[in-house]
Design a protein that fits this description.
Structural class: alpha/beta
GO molecular function: ATP binding; ATP hydrolysis activity
Radius of gyration: 24 Å
Pfam family, one: ABC_tran
Family: Belongs to the ABC transporter superfamily.
CATH topology of the largest domain: Rossmann fold
Protein name: ATP-binding cassette domain-containing protein
Strand content: 25-35%
Distance between the termini: 37 Å
CATH class of the largest domain: Alpha Beta
Helix content: 25-40%
Shape: elongated
Number of domains: 2
Keywords: ATP-binding, Nucleotide-binding, Transport
Largest sheet: 6 strands, mixed
CATH superfamily of the largest domain: P-loop containing nucleotide triphosphate hydrolases
Length: 303
């Protein structure tokens, strides 16, 4: 059985003046997955998110949230969406529970049971009656997520969820988001400039540049296609001459680098040895997502 996406973006365009700044963007986010949305400065990522959350209207194309088209079923679509942009807005002088009760009053369908459910989901049971001013930044983020989940949305959008956190807090937030998505089958779209964190956090990513999505795939698949091999060999000049006849070769502090190919590595190794090259070590190297990102976006850093 095919799962219905919590978010479907199809052929999305946004024109400003005479210029298309978003050009045919399409992707899906499925239940239970953490989806990374990446792009360098000016790529159009923020504009796309603003269209998804209903702050600006697309020029053309469709956005469906839990099957509801935001153009024709705006209210129903927005009811299935929770969103936090950087630091959540909370009242420091109130307890965590009182903050949730305050926001729950805006939606009559939210009862005390739901407040208890989201408190448990974000693992704040032991501190929910303490004032928010005593919370760490990570706890504030989790309370903000609880607030965004009050109405029971199918899709949660988090913009820079680890912003300002120390390494321990980043690790805790990463584990929390992953467990939240898995346990509740919630779809989570994450935007972040920390590519190393996105690599550890997300199941799939979409990489955007110049208003277009240029790559969408599982993080593991993207990185596997860019795996390299480091050859620690001697003499290095002779090895380079042999390998250059077979594949692309670059030099590294530890030796020579070639693309990884399981079937070719043993063949290349045999050729080197037969030609009198001493092969000391063959080491597979998986690239960081940042390397792939910079390659695909022409060296532009994430915003």
């Amino acid at each position: 059985m095919t799962l219905q996406p919590a978010l479907t973006v199809r052929n999305l365009y946004k024109r400003m003046g005479r210029k298309d700044i978003i050009k045919g963007v399409s992707f899906d986010v499925f239940p239970g997955e953490v989806f990374g949305f990446l792009g360098p400065n000016g790529a159009g990522k923020t504009t796309t998110i603003r269209m998804i959350v209903g702050l600006i209207k697309p020029t053309s194309g469709d956005i469906f949230i839990a099957g509801h088209n935001i153009r024709t079923q705006f209210t129903k679509a927005m009811q299935q969406l929770g969103c936090i942009v950087e630091n959540p807005e909370l009242y420091d002088y109130l307890s965590g529970r009182e903050n949730l009760e305050y926001f729950a009053r805006m939606d009559r369908s939210i009862d005390k049971k739901r407040i208890e459910e989201v408190t448990k989901l974000v693992k704040l049971e032991s501190r929910i009656h303490d004032r928010v001013k005593t919370y760490s930044l990570g706890m504030r983020q989790r309370l903000g997520i609880a607030q965004a989940l009050l109405s029971g949305p199918k899709l949660l959008i988090l913009d820079e969820p680890t912003n300002g956190l120390d390494p321990a807090g980043i690790h805790e937030m990463r584990e929390f988001i992953r467990s939240l998505a898995k346990e509740s089958q919630l779809s989570v779209l994450v935007s972040s400039h920390l590519l190393s964190e996105i690599q550890l956090l997300c199941d799939r990513v979409a990489i955007m540049t110049n208003g277009e999505v240029i790559k969408t795939d599982r993080v593991s698949s993207l990185l596997t296609t860019k795996e390299k091999v480091i050859w620690n060999v001697s003499p290095i000049s002779k090895a380079r001459e042999i390998l250059q006849k077979e594949t692309d070769v670059t030099e590294h502090l530890e030796g020579l680098i070639t693309p990884y190919s399981e079937e070719n590595v043993s063949l290349w190794n045999k050729k080197l040895v037969n030609k009198g090259v001493q092969v000391n070590e063959i080491k597979k190297m998986k690239p960081a997502l940042e390397d792939l990102f910079l390659e695909l976006t022409g060296g532009k850093k994430s915003d």
